[in-house]
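Entry 14. Two folds queued back to back today. First construct below, sequence then structure tokens.
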Amino acid sequence: MLEECTIRDHIIENYSGECYGYIGDSDNAIKHILRSLSLMNDYIDALDNLKSIGGSLTGAIEIGDYTWAKFRSQ
């Protein structure tokens, strides 16, 4: 998977977090997404993914903003 990449830039960290989010491993998802943001603090995809993880953990959803429900199980 993405763990085998030798270059760990903000994009790889974000995609790793996104993969963990989709399989329901929110702890690792948060770890990788926060690492992505520490490398580039204005990376909008990582900010959206962090919002999505929060939405999946709290059950919160913002109508009109699909990112809140991205990692929600159906």
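Second construct, same run, same settings:
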Amino acid sequence: MAARLRQQLAKNETPIELVTPKVTAKQNLPASIFNMNDFMVKLVVDWKYTLIGKFNSTIPKIELIRKRFIV
């Protein structure tokens, strides 16, 4: 399904002009700081179905992640 969605979106894709993010470190971990206007206005349309997760140990299998979100 994701592959089909990417294919459909690629047909109508227009490049997004973004301000280069500031690469820095926070609490000794790598971090990127994005322009708030870029994130809230330009990227929200493309990222509306994006899920970002943080795993403290190993990454669980994708099937287990999907089961948690399908109600």
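Quick look at the second one. The first helix runs from residue 2 to 11. The first strand starts at residue 22 and ends at 26.
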